[in-house]
């Protein structure tokens, strides 16, 4: 090591300035007699600068000149540069423009040397190929009856005959009479007496109508046909051929009460072109045999 005027010594190996009288360098730990031998520049290499790169044609320099170059020491980067990402951002992607292709007529005009394209031929249908039997299309004008009156029923379900409807009504009234008989039996078992005067007849007659009314309300609330219609094989359907909804059944029950009170609504089926009663016209429903199925529907 060489002396310094300010009581400091400079290491001849690494160029570090140490205090006077130190036995080893405070930076590299070298002794004062150790010097940098060979043609090596004072330049670090790698993360810890553990290897020195030789210079082939460099001339030997004194230790003082090599110490000055310590301020220009260069260290390589610890981490390599990040490679470019393989993900293409949406902003950088631009779809190539699509050029419209000219039509065949324009191609033939622009290229007169080439022959014009042949017209496309339609495939021939073999005579042996079968065909499906579809239902014939319905006429656009409203369906008319034999008397040139527009029909109110737009489905093909037939209307039950008056005799068929009478059988269903008789079965329903038999159920009402059975209930009325049970009422009288309970009244007699409770100690009631049967006195046939004006007031008693009104009470017994009113109880019969009340039982019949309750019977009709029960099936209306249940949303089903009555027991007599079920036993007679009848079902209700709308004029369009669909199952009736609750408001249809309420209107039909109200129309039935009106027809029964006036009797004219029940007899209207004999004068109607489609054998419909008042309750049928009021509710838009009619009874039809359960086995019949409406196949063709036409909305108004």
Detailed description of the structure:
There is one protein chain. With 300 residues, this protein is mainly alpha-helical. Among the domains are: 1-76, no CATH class; 162-289, no CATH class. It is built from eight helices and four strands; from the N terminus they run ββαααααβαααβ. It has helices spanning 63-68, 104-110, 162-189, 198-222, 227-232, 246-262, 264-271, 278-283; strands spanning 8-10, 17-19, 234-238, 285-289. A two-stranded antiparallel sheet has the order 1-2. Strands 3-4 form a two-stranded antiparallel ribbon. Helix 3 (162-189) crosses helix 4. It is elongated and about 150 Å long.
Radius of gyration: 56 Å
- SSE order, as H and E? EEHHHHHEHHHE
How large is the share of residues in beta strands? Answer: 5-15%
Helix content: 25-40%
What is this structure's SSE topology?
Blueprint: E1 8-10, E2 17-19, H1 63-68, H2 104-110, H3 162-189, H4 198-222, H5 227-232, E3 234-238, H6 246-262, H7 264-271, H8 278-283, E4 285-289
Helix pairs in contact: 3-4, 4-6
Name a few traits of the molecule.
single chain; 300 residues; mainly alpha; two-stranded antiparallel sheet; 8 helices; elongated; disordered N terminus; disordered C terminus
